[in-house]
Structures are given as structure tokens and as C-alpha cells.
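Review this today:
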Amino acid sequence: MKKILLLALSLNLVIGCKKEIANPEEIIQDIATYSDKVLDNAVIYEANIRQYSPSGTFNAFSKDIPKLKELGVKILWLMPIHPIGIKNRKEGLGSYYSIKDYRGINPEFGKLEDFKNLVKTAHQNGMYVIMDWVPNHTAWDHAWVADHKDYYAKDKDGKMFSPFDWTDVVKLDYSNQNLRKAMIWEMKYWLTEANVDGFRCDVAGEVPTDFWESAALELKKTKPVFMLAEAEKPELSKKAFDMAYGWEAHHIMNEIAQGKKTVKDFDSYITKKDSVWEKDDISMYFTSNHDENSWNGTEYERMGDAVETFAALTYLIPGIPLIYNGQEYDFNRRLKFFVKDSINTVKGKMFPIYTKLGQLKNGNSALDGGKKPGSYKRIATSSNQNILAFEREKLGKKVIFVGNLTKTNQSFTAPIEGAFIDYISGKKVVFSKNQKLDFNPWEYKILLSE
């Protein structure tokens, strides 16, 4: 299994990094080094720049980066920042994932210098920045369509075509070695020009695995990078990617919230993951993201009153949690995808919840989710189909999660004894042997040893 260098932010090193990167050919030397530690306790934040603020600019987002630090965010994932194709564009402003120029900046968001300042601000606040990279297809008016027709896949009639029903883009052909070289070169540009720290790779499973393996190797010759795959394929994590999407867990959580599945289905997922994936493979867990929010509904539509419970669960199981912008502000509306929209940024119920969860994730080794995660031990209860209970432990730290994953009141017993701090409420709780526990619908507790 890969023993690559991963993210670890040494804040002093980053703050001390004053050098401006002006030459895209230059190899960066004055960067903070990576280690496994940041992935142990990171929180990822997905930022939709267009919809994050009324102005939809890099500068408006940069001003809020210190707020994200309160949430324990260590990795910023920016949705695509490039110019959007005009030919066959969908609706008014088009899809971020229809890339007209891999080296360009969408003028809606600002200028290159504004983006560089965003990256610098993130680094100064102890965060890394990863770009959303779209390698499977380009816009129909990308220069390659005219200048490098051989870069594109062809149908039986020899014509370029759109993947799936994505009519605003045209599919690339990775059997072409020149395309592979060109794509890697485009990615390298952002490492040197803007000092970004890695990539979230769109529909990564649609691009050949051997391309990703060679791309990761080449990119790491420039600087250490963090690679997140929008896919859930174990083979991608062997050499190419540092983290994969936890799609299956996400769908199970939705279906438990909807009464279609039970805790036993979640237990089966954990067992399957242990058998199919390597121990040092990392998953990203979430209750929402841009696709889910816009196309399948907000977390409140899909999960109802269970939103907070499953948000907590994404922090407690081995892996890394994701916040999609707006979730911290209780935003309960589907963001428009192709036209201007914006979230609200008024703190409500969830901001302090995400803050507390982030502090626990950042600071308690039992919740390490990186290459050497804290152990996960299922705690059997008298109602395993309805109650999820487990403990995580590492380096002398222990955290226990107990949750009623149903919409009805539950009475049960669990082999939990002693005095604990109920982390979310801050109150002391005492459990005695074979004590009957009564939990309200979706009630959960995070227990720390007193």
C-alpha cells in the first residue's frame, strides 16, 4: 500500500512562506511539508464561490476564511474556478464543470491575483486549498476541440460526443498519450502559479486508473499534493488518491433516515469496508455536497429531523467529514446550479454544533481518521437494529457514540458503565450496569471519559 507523504500543515512554516510564485515553470521549495497528521484530524469544507456570497467572488469568500477556522476546517475544496464554455451552455451562467480553459479564471469570481490571495489567506489560517479538477471532459468551445481533435473520444460515426446527458461538454480520450501529458501539465500550472495543495478530481472513476497513477507521481515531483477522488473504487486508492468518497455510507444514512434501512445495514457497510478496502485507505463522509443539494435535495429534505445525528456520525466514524457551504448556517434550500444564487450566512443551530464537532475531531486522537485511524469497536445493545453504539480509541483517548437511528422512542440497555461528559451538552452523565436507557427519536450522545 502506498506510503506517500500526505497533508500536514505546519502553520509556522506556512506563515513564514513569503515568496510570490510568478513563474509557472518554477519548482516551489518554500512550502510546508506534508505528513499523515492533518488527515488524522481534518475537516473538509466545499466552497461554491459563485453561490457563497451575494457578490460571488474570491475576495468575499477570503474574508470568511477565519470563520471556517472556527469550524476546525483544515482543507478547503473549491468548486471549479475556470471560465465556463458558451457553446451548448446550460441556462444563464452555465455549469462550473464545463471548462473552457484549464489555466483561466472565471471572471465572475475575480482575477488570478484574487485567487492567489485566497490561497495565501487559507495558508495563514492553517488550511490547505484543493481545486476541483474536471479531467473527463471539456466545454465544446475549449481550444482543444479545434486544435487537438485527437484528444477527444469519437462515436461510431467518428464524431465527438457528450458523456451521459451532459450536453454542454465533450468527452476526452485517454488512449491519447499527448492528452495525458497535456492534462498533467495543466494541473502542474496551478501548483506553481498559485501554490495550491491538491485536487478534488471530478468523476475520477471515468478516467483510467493508470492515468491517475502517473499523474499523481508527476505532480508530486513539483510539490506534495493531496488527491481526492470523486469515486468509491478501491483501486484508485492504491497509488493515485489519498481519499475517496463515502458514497455508500451516505446513501445508507439517507435510507435509515427515511425508514428504508436500519442500523444493521450500517453495520454491514462497516464490515464490508474492512474487508474490501485497505486499512490506510481514507473515506470522506458527508450529509450533503453540491450534487446532493442541487439535484437530490437538501439534507433536511433527505434526512428530516435526523440531520444533526448523521452530521455527528460523519465526524465519529473512521474517515474525514465534509461540510458543504451553507450547512453550517442551517441553509435549507436547494442552491440553483446554473444561475446566480446565494446562501445565507446567519448563524443558527448548526454553527455551534459543527464548531464543537470540529474541535473534537481536531483535538481527540481517538477520532483520527487518516492512515492510522483510531480503533472502531461496535458496542452491542439490546436493540442493535435501532441503536448504533461504538467506541473509538487511540493513544489513551476514548470516545463513545450512542444514537437512536429511528424516528420513534427507544428503550434499550448497553454495556456502558461509569461517569462521562456528554460532549455536546457539556453535562456529566453516569451509566450503571444494565441500566435502562430511554432515547428520543434521533437522540445521540458523544461520551468522553470524565
